[in-house]
Amino acid sequence: MQRVCxxxxxxxxxMPCHPARARKLLKKGKAAVLRCYxxxxxxxxxxxxxLQPIEIKRLKKIQAQAKAPLKDAAAVNATRYxxxxxxxxxxxxxxxxxxGRTKFNRIKLGxxxxxxxxxxxxxxxxxxxxxxxxxxxxxxxxxxxxxxxKCRMNQYGFPRTSPKKQ
Length: 166
What we know:
alpha+beta
């Protein structure tokens, strides 16, 4: 079951609560969002009542969960640099840059946040990019109206009909 981390107004960890309870606390203005991942709320103030301190076992689990995205980012960076170093072996001109550099270039040039604009603003060369206002990407939407398959499937993935005749 999913839980929301809760901190007291003095940033002391409390027992996690159910997401529905966290929504009620936020809606009533009794709590504020402290962090999005792991989703954590902080109580604004409490008048009376006992605070239930967090169990040490759960605290360790929550702290490990907070460090998980850092491990993922480290793995992505290690893979990126290993791939780049392998490509350098071919004698190709390669430069490395981070998402922070891309964001810096985009903000400095005054462009909005969009995937195709970020792709243009990557790295050192992204600082000199000029995108005219008239240029916009082609927006296409897949409707998924076709049914090209050998035979229909039921909700469990088993064939529901016989294969189509050719």
